[in-house]
Write a structure and sequence with these properties.
Helix content: under 10%
Shape: elongated
Strand order of the largest sheet: 1-2-3-4-5-6-7-8
Radius of gyration: 21 Å
Low-confidence stretches: 19-29, 31-38
Number of helices: 1
Structural class: mainly beta
Distance between the termini: 34 Å
Strand content: over 45%
Number of domains: 1
CATH topology: Porin
Length: 203
């Protein structure tokens, strides 16, 4: 992780925490009512996330009458930023779109996802799916991502949540002409991420 990435994500979280403590609490009053109106979810938001990822990759190479397969497993801390937009319906449902990018690990991956959920006692529960991308050395790989999460208001215009995502990157394959024969190769990877989120809503 470069110093630039470390400083950027640290500054993002510090800014979000400053926004948290600069606004009143959502504690109930003496009559059990919220001390302020719950946030309207419709609108633009930005935030940061921090979590952990587990993944595995498979690679196969065949040529010269033989085939070699390799499987690798790994895990790493992940963290980054997200930006999105929500539309809340009168019936308590929510539709949104979100883009995120990892800044903490060396994986250089991100997503563009749709979100669909519902509100229950001011708690947003949602499913999400979309396109994932990653920088894999000299090549960029694209895949699919699905997941689910929950988000709650913690301070005015600020929400916190927990999200689980599964990434599946499509198989990359090709051939290499060595001059002595042709070598065929293929590789694919998938990973699972659990992360906490903090968002500030501009509404």
């Amino acid at each position: 992780m470069t110093a630039f990435r470390s400083n950027l994500i640290s500054a993002t979280f510090v800014g979000m925490l400053a926004a948290l403590f600069a606004t009143p609490s959502a504690a109930d009053d003496e009559y059990g009512r919220l001390a302020y109106a719950p946030p309207i979810w419709t609108g633009l938001y930005v935030g940061a996330h921090l979590g952990y990822a587990w993944g595995q990759g498979d690679a196969n190479v065949s040529g010269f009458g033989m085939t070699v397969g390799v499987e690798a497993h790994g895990s790493d801390a992940v963290g980054g930023i997200q930006i999105g937009y929500n539309w809340q319906t009168p019936g308590g449902y929510l539709v949104g779109i979100e883009a995120d990018y990892d800044l903490l690990s060396d994986l250089n991956f991100g997503t563009v996802r749709g979100r669909f959920g519902f509100l229950a006692n001011h708690v947003l529960v949602y499913g999400t799916a979309g396109v994932a991308f990653a920088d894999s050395g000299p090549d960029n790989v694209v895949g699919l991502v699905i997941g689910a999460g929950a988000e709650i208001p913690v301070w005015r215009k600020t929400t916190a949540g927990l999200e689980a995502l599964y990434y599946n990157f499509k198989e990359q394959s090709g051939t290499i002409n060595t001059g002595f024969g042709t070598v065929h190769y293929s590789a694919d990877a998938d990973s699972f991420v659990i992360r906490g989120r903090l968002n500030y809503h501009f509404n």
